[in-house]
């Protein structure tokens, strides 16, 4: 059997695997091509739920309940799909030979999809990687919750500092403040406003909401180092903290940035792709055994790093892989589809039942924004889980969230 290997089972990888499986089945080729999906976790993480997982009281939800609303077992997401799932760490990708090295296992591939997402970028700031908490995974969310609870147990007025006022910083600050109103929560941002680069109306609404919640916003201040007790700023000021969370940037994993593919210049190290989502090679003489596509956050794209973009990339990549396969099988002459970025709608929840939603030129905020967020979540859950399970998970999430809000 020919091998299609997909690295990473996040939004992009999972969508690519499911779409490819469906298309291969429709083409009657599922016994000639094997799809293998690899991830270090045997679950898929629904990242928009991580803020809530990190800020839910232990009386409201235990570890299992939080896990059930923020992550979904691959066995359920891939049921009856025919996709071979491997839980393992990817340690090296050798694209010249079409081989992927896992811990204690090697995979050969005829087609490869890179969907490894991103990791936290500490920009080499002294002390940051050792001392900062991050929020990228479900385990991070639990660690953050425990650290905040321990800090509050020691000091009722603990100060929580969030480095980076992008969407992660803003959303997390809002949720922490709703959960623990007595804490002092501050955002430190190097640009002149939080959500820098977002639509001005969204920025204004977010700032107003943060101030309303009592969150301190420190802008135009760059963090230069951090020690056990204080954050040092470029202006020379020291800011004491009890809990420090870093949400100041992301980059592609080293596995990607070290590939002999075209990699974007700068600090993010993502792979460059053609409009067909096929990776561009660095040296023209590199003979690739496999065709390599990429989706999601590990791609250098005009699209923002959001789940919807990863899923759209996956749609194009999977269509084009199928076109390549059908052409190879002599089933006709199929052309490639092209990915076009657009003004992606986005939602920024800022504490409690409040979210700012931007759809095209329209900005909706407040409770109605929160309702839209709920509908978008349900829609995604329905796309990866069986109907009743998706509905159950969604309702459970809402119940936990509302109870937590009331407690806060
Ligand atoms: C806290 C948080 C909240 C967010 N909220 C939103 C939101 O509300 N809306 C939105 O659109 N986007 C949101 N995002 C962004 C969104 O999660 C990403 O854009 C999206 O996950 C990108 O999909 P992806 O498939 O590229 O990567 P991911 O979904 O990150 O998937 C990458 C996968 O690769 C696996 N992996 C990586 N390296 C290895 C390795 N070496 N070995 C094995 N497996 C590996 C990881 O385990 C992971 O499962 C949020 C992100 C975070 C962190």
UniProtKB/TrEMBL annotation:
GO molecular function: NAD(P)H dehydrogenase (quinone) activity
Record bears the keyword Nuclease: no
Taxonomy of the source species: Bacteria, Candidatus Wolfeibacteriota
Annotated InterPro entries: FAD/NAD-bd_sf (IPR036188), FAD/NAD-binding_dom (IPR023753), NADH-Q_oxidoreductase (IPR051169)
Co-factor(s): FAD
Protein name as it appears in the record: FAD/NAD(P)-binding domain-containing protein
Pfam families, alphabetized: Pyr_redox_2 (PF07992)
Any GO BP annotation: aerobic electron transport chain
The keyword Oxidoreductase appears for this protein: yes
Protein family according to the UniProt entry: Belongs to the NADH dehydrogenase family.
Protein keywords: FAD, Flavoprotein, Oxidoreductase
Chain ranges of the FAD/NAD(P)-binding domain: 3-314
Signal peptide: none
């Amino acid at each position: 059997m020919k091998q299609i290997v997909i690295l990473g089972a996040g939004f992009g990888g999972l969508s690519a695997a499911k779409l490819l499986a469906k298309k291969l089945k429709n083409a009657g080729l599922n016994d000639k091509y094997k799809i293998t999906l690899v991830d270090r976790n045997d679950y898929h993480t629904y990242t928009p739920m991580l803020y809530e997982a990190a800020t839910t009281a232990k009386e409201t939800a235990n570890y299992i309940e939080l896990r059930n609303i923020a992550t979904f077992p691959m066995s359920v997401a891939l049921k009856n799909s025919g996709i071979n799932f491997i839980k393992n760490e990817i340690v090296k990708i050798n694209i010249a030979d079409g081989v992927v090295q896992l811990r204690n296992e090697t995979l050969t591939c005829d087609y490869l999809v890179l969907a490894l997402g991103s990791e936290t970028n500490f920009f080499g700031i002294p002390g940051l990687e050792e001392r900062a908490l991050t929020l990228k995974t479900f385990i991070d969310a639990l660690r953050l919750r425990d650290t905040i609870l321990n800090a509050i147990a020691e000091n009722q007025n603990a100060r929580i500092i969030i480095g980076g006022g992008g969407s992660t910083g803003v959303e997390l600050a809002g949720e922490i403040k709703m959960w623990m109103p007595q804490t002092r929560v501050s955002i430190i941002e190097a640009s002149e406003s939080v959500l820098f680069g977002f639509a001005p109306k969204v920025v204004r609404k977010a700032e107003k909401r943060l101030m309303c919640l009592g969150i301190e916003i420190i802008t135009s201040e760059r963090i230069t180092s951090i020690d056990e007790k204080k954050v040092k700023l470029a202006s020379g000021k020291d800011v004491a903290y009890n809990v420090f969370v870093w949400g100041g940037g992301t980059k592609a994993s080293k596995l990607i940035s070290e590939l002999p593919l075209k990699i974007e210049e700068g600090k993010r190290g993502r792979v460059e792709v053609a409009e067909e989502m096929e990776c561009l090679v660095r040296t023209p003489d590199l003979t690739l055994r496999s065709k390599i596509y990429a989706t999601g956050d590990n791609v250098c794209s005009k699209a923002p790093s959001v789940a919807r973009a990863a899923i759209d990339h996956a749609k194009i990549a999977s269509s084009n892989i199928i076109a390549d396969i059908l052409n190879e099988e002599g089933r006709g002459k199929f052309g490639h589809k092209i990915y076009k970025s657009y003004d992606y709608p986005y939602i920024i929840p800022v504490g409690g039942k409040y979210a700012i939603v931007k759809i095209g030129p329209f900005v909706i905020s407040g409770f109605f924004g929160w309702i839209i967020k709920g509908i978008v979540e349900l829609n995604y859950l329905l796309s990866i889980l069986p109907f009743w399970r998706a509905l159950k998970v969604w309702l459970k999430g809402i119940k936990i969230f509302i109870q937590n809000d009331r407690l806060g």
